[in-house]
Design brief:
This protein has 290 residues and is of the alpha/beta class. The chain contains 9 helices and 12 strands. The chain has one domain: Rossmann fold, CATH 3.40.50.720. Strand 3, helix 3 and strand 4 form a beta-alpha-beta unit. Helix 2 runs parallel beside helix 3. The longest helix has 21 residues. The radius of gyration is 19 Å and the shape is globular. The mean pLDDT is 96.
Length: 290
């Protein structure tokens, strides 16, 4: 009897890479990992072709347009990748009764909150990237009732471009760094998120839970600023660099960033029994590999 097939987009991104790295631990499944060469979210016909060829049993969409500042001007591409194509994937999934897990972001919120955002907290993105991701959530849920949207925040790993790797590079090059201290959130190690996603699919496949769809939040445990994040990287790696805190006002960017980005992950634990892991231990684990 053939194994269920899990299709994963964005194989070269942080999350897709981590799912591939741990996929051998989920031996009940066959995996199809795809990048832009086979499935390009900016070219809808490649999505049609992919589904015709593979007909997956589960679909994980890790692909996204993530250049937050560039999205302010490259509006058409961000919309096509983060919204239109996600809706098309969801439609195809619905036609073959395939559950979809697609990844979203804390940037769907405006950053005006003062306590961790629950899944039903009002969305109000303040940049175009956040707007396209929110639209992608809405279209996916409309087009396939068996959709799980996972909002996450501050993702990093050993692979790809992220805050941790940027800090290590800058700390090696400079004597002093100024890091924003008034934006608050929770870092998420991509490996932890990858494990959570495959654990959900395993549980649904094994019928160990009554599957619930809709919106979930997942980030590592802990609430810090980017400045505190940088300080921990410096301390753990014992790098002799001065790290100072500055305000968002002193570090202007084309796209506005939410000041408060903490997500409440309690639904993930209640439904699928998945606990968030400590941000500091997760960071140390990543730094050890780097």
């Amino acid at each position: 009897m053939s194994k269920p097939v899990i299709a994963v987009t964005g194989k070269n991104g942080q999350l897709g890479y981590e799912i591939k790295a741990i996929s051998a631990q989920f031996s009940d499944f066959d995996f199809v990992f795809t990048g832009r060469d086979e499935l390009d979210l900016y070219t809808p016909e490649t999505i049609d072709n992919f589904f015709d060829k593979h007909k997956p049993d589960f679909f994980i969409n890790c692909a996204a347009y993530t250049a937050v500042d560039k999205a302010e001007t490259d509006i058409e591409t961000a919309m096509a990748v983060n919204a239109t194509s996600v809706g098309l994937i969801a439609k195809h999934c619905h036609e073959i009764n395939c559950p979809l897990i697609t990844i979203s972001t804390d940037y769907v919120f405006d950053g005006q909150g003062t306590k961790p955002y629950t899944i039903d907290y009002i969305t109000n993105p303040i940049n175009h990237y956040g707007y396209t991701k929110l639209l992608g959530e809405e279209i996916a849920l409309q087009n396939n009732p068996q959709t799980i949207v996972i909002r996450t925040s501050w993702v990093y790993s050993e692979h790809g471009n992220n805050f941790v790797k940027t800090m290590l590079r800058l700390m090696a090059e400079k004597h002093a760094l100024s890091i924003v201290g008034d934006q608050i959130g929770s870092p998420t190690y991509a490996k932890n998120l990858a494990t959570a996603i495959l654990t959900i699919i395993q549980q649904i496949n094994d019928k160990k839970v009554e599957p619930e769809y809709g919106i979930f939040h997942y980030s590592d445990k802990g609430i810090i600023s980017w400045f505190q994040f940088a300080k921990e990287i410096k301390a753990y790696k014992k790098i002799a660099v001065k790290v100072s805190s500055i305000t968002t006002e002193n570090y202007p960017t084309p796209a506005k960033r939410p000041a408060y980005s903490v997500l409440d992950s309690s639904r993930m634990k209640a439904v699928y029994g998945i606990e968030s892991l400590d941000w500091k231990e997760s960071l140390h684990s990543c730094l050890d590999k780097l």
